[in-house]
């Protein structure tokens, strides 16, 4: 199966990290941090075992792995979407937005690694995938996530009130952040 991520050059190397496409043998390392309660609290769904996580990742068509010194320390998500466009111009709005997501091993927090990784992913989205806008969303209570978005220069575009259902916390507020390619450059 092909993925829009096939358009980018992999691996991408930063000062301390390697970003590369997902491989099925990454699942046990991903499960090690995603199964932690402090991580699972904020991700879309939890997996009870390696096999269920492998099923969720499937062929990994939208997943990017973050490695440091050969160790998987995080995973990123890139979903290319169509922007809204009136019928007469809808084809020009096709595949112009990328929604990003991320999950990192807490053992790696506080070192600027998430900022470095997501900054490179944004570059890939703009320079190699050709999108014009990236966006990301999180529960407002997930302060580390929205702080990361702000460090990357993303602007808070929306504060949705009680629109997102958290499995343990009930209805929660959500922040949406975005950045345009022109602002990035």
TrEMBL record:
PROSITE patterns registered for this protein in UniProt: GNAT
Keyword Transferase appears in the UniProt entry: yes
Keywords: Transferase
InterPro entries in UniProt: Acyl_CoA_acyltransferase, GNAT_dom, N-acetyltransferase
GO molecular function, one term: acyltransferase activity, transferring groups other than amino-acyl groups
SUPFAM superfamilies on file: Acyl-CoA N-acyltransferases (Nat)
Keyword Transferase appears in the UniProt entry: yes
PANTHER family found in the cross-reference section: GNAT FAMILY, PUTATIVE (AFU_ORTHOLOGUE AFUA_3G00765)-RELATED-RELATED, N-ACETYLTRANSFERASE DOMAIN-CONTAINING PROTEIN
Protein's name according to its UniProt entry: GNAT family N-acetyltransferase
Taxonomic classification: Bacteria, Bacillati, Actinomycetota, Actinomycetes, Propionibacteriales
């Amino acid at each position: 199966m092909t993925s829009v991520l096939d358009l980018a050059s992999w691996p991408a190397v930063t000062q301390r990290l390697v970003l590369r496409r997902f491989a099925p043998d990454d699942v046990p390392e991903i499960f090690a941090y995603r199964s932690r309660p402090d991580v699972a609290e904020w991700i879309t769904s939890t997996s009870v075992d390696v096999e269920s996580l492998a099923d969720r990742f499937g062929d990994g068509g939208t997943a990017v792995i973050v490695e440091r010194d050969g160790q998987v320390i995080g995973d990123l998500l890139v979903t290319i979407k169509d922007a809204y466009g009136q019928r007469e111009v809808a084809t020009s709005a096709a595949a112009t937005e990328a929604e990003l997501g991320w999950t990192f091993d807490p053992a790696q927090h506080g070192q600027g690694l998430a900022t470095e990784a997501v900054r490179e992913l944004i570059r890939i989205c703009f320079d190699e995938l050709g999108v014009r806008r990236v966006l990301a969303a999180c529960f407002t209570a997930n302060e580390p996530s929205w702080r990361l978005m702000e460090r990357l220069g993303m602007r808070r575009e929306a504060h949705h009130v009680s629109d997102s259902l958290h499995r343990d916390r009930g209805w929660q507020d959500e922040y949406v952040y975005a950045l345009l390619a022109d602002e990035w450059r």
